[in-house]
Automatic annotation (TrEMBL):
<dbReference type="InterPro" id="IPR036291">
    <property type="entry name" value="NAD(P)-bd_dom_sf"/>
</dbReference>
<protein>
    <recommendedName>
        <fullName>Gfo/Idh/MocA-like oxidoreductase N-terminal domain-containing protein</fullName>
    </recommendedName>
</protein>
Amino acid sequence: MKKVGFIDYFLDEWHAEKYPEWLEQASGGQYKVIYAYGKADSPSGTSNADWCANKGIELLGTIEEVVEKSDCLIVLSPDHPEFHEELSQLPLRSGKPTYIDKTFTPDRKTALALFELGRRYGTPMYSSSALRFASEYADIDREAIRTIASAGPGRFENYSIHQIEPIVSLMGNRPQRLMWIGTDNSPALIIDFGDGKQAEVRHFGWECPFSMTLNDASGHAKSIKVESDFFASFIEGLITFFETSKPLVEESETIAIITIIEYGMKAAESPYQWVELPG
């Protein structure tokens, strides 16, 4: 059995709640979350000590202990990526397979620094939204795509990753510029990939499912509503990563995704104006 270590801002959150059971079931008991560290207790939920006691997971007092005792590592804090740089310092120096939860970092500069740190210490690592692994995207002809109109729920700050991740995986890692076209209640963004390729991201209420309409070079359209169990596919991929130490997502794609999110937030300050993206 391989021992998995959690490192989180606080442990009483949805991803930490679900991942242990999913990992153990999908791996047939070969991967199990044994250790956990939380920087702080949840401000509105269960303490780290009570959470670990309820889960049968050993709470450790330092990140160093989790890194030392675990075979592979998951840095969580999915809704607080501003803590990923701090929480990932020791994991990325460990040489042990490390997954860093979405959203990878709040800005491009930090994303570049974390990848460089992992590279310097030979630590295999990646980050992704689970939506990347939805089976509905698997058979799409990526070369033919010219336009994507994507829709989904949530706030731009922490939910745009779930639309932008699939868009970059389909359209490539070289977005050129973007423009904010949304409102306070319905954030929206146009992303120009050059060569006539463009994607639109729109956020609606929580009743809005993740969906996408694609147009190809000949003008034919295809509409997709994400209904597959993408978290199951994500967990299977995570286990494969732990076994092989081969990241499932290219660094260049993750950098492009974070760049779009960071500059999208900036573009919201000056709507309907193109904002050029760094290459």
